[in-house]
Prior knowledge:
By secondary structure, the protein is α+β, with helices and mostly antiparallel strands. The protein has one domain (about 25-120): Roll (Nuclear Transport Factor 2, Chain: A). About 50% of the residues lie in helices and about 25% in strands. It has a four-stranded antiparallel beta sheet with strand order 1-2-3-4. β3 (about 110-115) and β4 (about 120-125) form a beta hairpin. The radius of gyration is 17 Å and the shape is globular.
Amino acid sequence: MKYLFICFLFFFSACSNINSEYKDADNALDAGREFIDACLKGDFVKASFYMIPDDKNKDCLTKIERQYREKDRDGRRQYREASININEIANPTETVTVINYSNSYDKIAHKIKVIQQNNKWLVDFKYTFDPNL
């Protein structure tokens, strides 16, 4: 019985620390940067930590992850080594920031929206695919 209790405690503490290695973003730029960097490096668990957890966002992230995994080894390495280039930052409201960025590898401009919800800054990734949101 003691063994079962110890195993339960170990399992519970391990599960509660799954995302504790990631720090909440202090501001919109930090949230956006952490999200973009995680995607470039192929760390989609970390990217999801900095993203609003709704079904549409999860679908968009899954699509990007699939495209990343389909790249050859050299392509993934190029993305991992790429730096983030911030082209423009817009703040339509106090709780919404839109970041226009590219990376040093493919140089394609993208936009992400970062929203403050419940005192946390999180990426609304679906905005990247439909900027009318």
